[in-house]
Amino acid sequence: MKKHFLNICLLFAFSISYSQNETTFLQKDKSEFKVSFADHFETLKIKNTKTKQVQIIKNLEASITGKQSNLEVNDFNFDGFTDFASFHTDDGMGVYTIYEIFIFNPKTKQFERLNFPAGFSPKCDMFCDVKIDKIKKTLTSNCRGGARNHTDVWKYNKNKKLILSKTQSY
Q1: What CATH number corresponds to the domain at position 41?
Q2: CA 98, CA 87: separation in Å to the nearest integer?
Q3: Contact, 94 vs 131, CB < 8 A?
Q4: pLDDT tens sequence across 1-31
Q5: Phi/psi at 42 (nearest 5 deg)?
Q6: Partners of 12 in the beta sheet?
Q7: How would you label 6-39 residue by residue, b for 16+ Cβ within 10 Å and e otherwise?
């Protein structure tokens, strides 16, 4: 009975965290944002409910096989402001999750796509299976290439710029 209860709880938690295609959250300055998908997950609509301004982000990395995209809210750059990511499973065998991360700019009150910085050579060509370590303040991306697994560890330098801290293959 305990085993079945645990399985049901895990299934319920998993379905909540991976079924979100619209979300609302507060920033630390008390502004509220509502994020939703449009155009078959290829566009994001972000509404600041305080100012009524709407930001549109087009050309999202969407599944070409119709897999649903989802949203995850987190502080991806460790600055205390809420950021978010759009993610979906890869179109191959579905072994990893592809993320597009959007960082809140408190000056413009807009979200900006987090891109790989120039001059680095990560093993993963996009953010995959992203894990956040709030203590070490790192983002870890894991992907597969052929028979190898790759890990890229990203962090922010003292100028708040994203840099590749470590990469490895095994």
Answers
A1: 2.40.128
A2: 5
A3: no
A4: 444 443 434 333 333 344 467 899 999 888 9
A5: -95, -5
A6: none
A7: eeeeeeeeeeeeeeeeeeeeebeeebebebebee
Q: Is 3 contained in some domain?
A: no
In a domain, 45, yes or no: yes
Q: How many structural domains does the chain have?
A: 1
128-150 mean pLDDT: 93
pTM: 0.83
Of 60, 16, 54, 53, which is closest to residue 37 (Cα–Cα)? Answer: 60
Cβ atoms 72, 100 nearer than 8 A: no
Whether 8 is in a domain gets the answer no
Q: Which two tokens stand for residue 63?
A: 């599944």
Dist CA 93 CA 91 (whole Å): 6
Tell me if 93 is assigned to some domain.
yes
The two tokens of residue 111 are 């979200």
What does the alpha-carbon distance between residue 88 and residue 14 come to, in Å, rounded to a whole number?
A: 14
- Over 89-150, what HEC string results? ECCCCCCCEEEEEEEEECCCCEEEECCCCCCCCCCCCCEECCEEECCCCEEEEEEEECCEEE
Which structural domain, as residue segments, surrounds residue 47?
A: 20-169
* Tokens, residue 155: 């962090």
